[in-house]
Amino acid sequence: MDIQQFNDSIEKKEMPKGLSLLLQALWHDANGDWQKAHELVDGPEGKAFARIHAYLYRKEGDLWNADYWYKRAGEPRPSINLTEEWEILVRRMLALP
Questions:
Q1: Using CA atoms, how far apart are residues 4 and 96, in angstroms rounded to an integer?
Q2: Number of domains, the chain
């Protein structure tokens, strides 16, 4: 799957089968369901989960919490807008094995 196919699935509101939890979270976020996105990344360990968790808290406006999760992910809070950050995250998660 590439980013265009992922974006098309969002427009159609039809989640593709077999998406990782990470991509499911980003898919739900793009469809306006922050809570579901957060539920999917709240619990599992790993830098990728922490990174999406950070993005979600940044989007919510809770920068203190976001910075905690960026630190756990081993990355600084980016200085790009949320749309750009989301796209970078989707591209990264699509590239994971």
A1: 17
A2: 1
